[in-house]
Design a protein that fits this description.
Blueprint lengths: L7 H4 L2 E5 L3 H12 L3 E5 L11 E4 L2 E4 L10 H4 L2
Parallel strand pairs: 1-2
Antiparallel strand pairs: 3-4
The protein binds flavin-adenine dinucleotide.
Length: 78
């Protein structure tokens, strides 16, 4: 679905992203924030990639991230 506030010329730009892991989902968000149409194709039944959570019987299995690295850009460049 397109952003109705964008000019027609901007709406022509589009990006196809393969994979709905964190990288693909982030790329999709940033593409939209910068005026691109973005289409994410995921071959699994749910998004998240290796950072997905799923339920089995009475358990919720948290398969991925517990501590997000690289989220403080100032700390990267001392
Ligand atoms: C157990 C575990 C714990 C972790 N803990 C942390 C942590 O604490 N902190 C941290 O920062 N990081 C952690 N990580 C690492 C972090 O989870 C990953 O680096 C990050 O989620 C990778 O995201 P990604 O989008 O690059 O790749 P993936 O998550 O691998 O996503 C790729 C996606 O592409 C899809 N795909 C692949 N091929 C195709 C295709 N041909 N067509 C369509 N779709 C396709 C896959 O199904 C998948 O959904 C952990 C990882 C694991 C496994």
């Amino acid at each position: 679905m397109g952003n109705p506030n964008l000019q027609e010329k901007e709406m022509e730009k589009s990006i196809i992203i393969i994979g709905a892991g964190i990288a693909g989902l982030s790329a999709g968000c940033y593409a939209r924030m910068n005026g691109y149409q973005s289409h994410i194709f995921e071959h699994h039944t749910r998004p998240g990639g290796v950072a997905a959570t799923w339920k089995r019987k009475d358990y919720i299995i948290d398969g991925g991230i517990h501590w997000l690295m690289g989220n403080k850009p100032k700390e990267r460049d001392p």
